[in-house]
């Protein structure tokens, strides 16, 4: 179960299509339309424009439900959020999307049907519509330029929804087909590098040697090398000291 | 200081305009373009299309810097993030936007110049471009439909940026010109309600009375009434029990 996205009096079919795309990006599938400007089902030309704007999110549009009034569109819902950028002279709970979404997740887990209202382009939701909702969501954005495209408002709510459900680690090291190097592989490389630098006369001031070794090691640690990369850097040293690279299949030096 | 948004080889001037709008929504102002498809400065017709799509974010577009190569565009930066939806066969740090942004905030506070790369429409960034960045950002989205419009990718990074800097409380009760009711005002109202319900014969089963009173109180608590609303509900009771409403200025019953 998911929050139901409800567009109230959408004016442009392109925006309905782009909303479907944003929903699909975020794994949302349930779309309701209240009194869209263009009569439903759409004229073929209009439908094509909507589908083009959806970039392939056709399924959502085909399953979309259309209602004549907002009251009918939300009749079966247990909790309704109204998105709005303006501070109305109304008494209401105002949530950020980041606070509202965990609440939605809990409500839905408790088998509540939850909907989120988005007003028409330019005007947004009006007071008579907002009062039908249980709470308001206001997206914190630049107060001097807060007007969002309809599909972008849907995207930001959907994005928060997806993040709340998603288990992607915040940080990961993608190592391709290789694996992170072991301590032993690092140590072997440091030893080799140190030996060859000794031979090349790198450590002129003997008393500086420990500090210089440590700072080289420190830099290489930060790089989080893979096993493959350690081998590549062994090859780099070999090349720099004049050992010719082995041809594949030729294992004698 | 802010992260610099860098569009690499953008193909459509409308997307450049919509990117500027999304940036302005999020309080970002620095835009760089690398080798845009349409030569810069734009032909008048193209410029009009871009400005129309920006919905008033002209300033960002007028100040935008254009570079022939990605190398030149990032030469003065200390840390560069590459946004990408695909898992490349490359070894790299991958961050979510939510993890990357606090890092950006720290870097910028330490006077580093930070940039975020966005690839061209359809293809995104290619490996030769990604390797010029220090880390990758991948936005967790529906893996079966992850392709975002260029401006929407910028919006999501900008949104996280704005949230990290913004101090809007997660939850607030907007009470308009009134103030939340005091405990005394609540208690006075409960007492009145109870008295009038007694008179009206509401509490038929005496042993149920404490439970019923408690559940009425509990519901009213949840509503978080303002002082004005408590007065309104006193008026509701008065009307229901047949006390005519006082005209303004007429204080005698």
How does this structure look, described?
- The structure is a homodimer of 253-residue chains.
- Chain A is an alpha/beta fold and 253 residues long.
- The first copy, chain A, is built from ten helices and eight strands.
- Chain A has helices spanning 13-25, 44-54, 58-63, 70-74, 97-109, 127-130, 150-165, 183-199, 209-222, 227-240; strands at 4-8, 31-34, 65-67, 79-83, 92-95, 114-118, 135-137, 171-174.
- Chain A has a seven-stranded parallel sheet with strand order 3-2-1-6-4-7-5.
- In chain A, strand 1, helix 1 (13-25) and strand 2 (31-34) form a beta-alpha-beta unit.
- The termini of chain A are far apart.
- The relative contact order of chain A is 0.13.
- The model of chain A has no long low-confidence stretch (mean pLDDT 90).
- Chains A and B meet through helix 1, strand 5, helix 7 and strand 8 of A and helix 1, strand 5, helix 7 and strand 8 of B.
- Strand 5 of chain A pairs antiparallel with strand 8 of chain B, so a sheet runs across the interface.
List keywords for this structure.
7-stranded parallel sheet; 253 residues; homodimer
Quick summary:
Two copies of one chain form a homodimer. With 253 residues, chain A is α/β, with parallel strands linked by helices.
Strand content of chain A: 5-15%
Unreliable stretches of chain A, pLDDT < 50, 5 or more residues?
A: none
Quick check: average pLDDT of chain A?
90
Morphology of chain A = elongated
Count up the helices of chain A: 10
What does the oligomeric state look like here?
homodimer
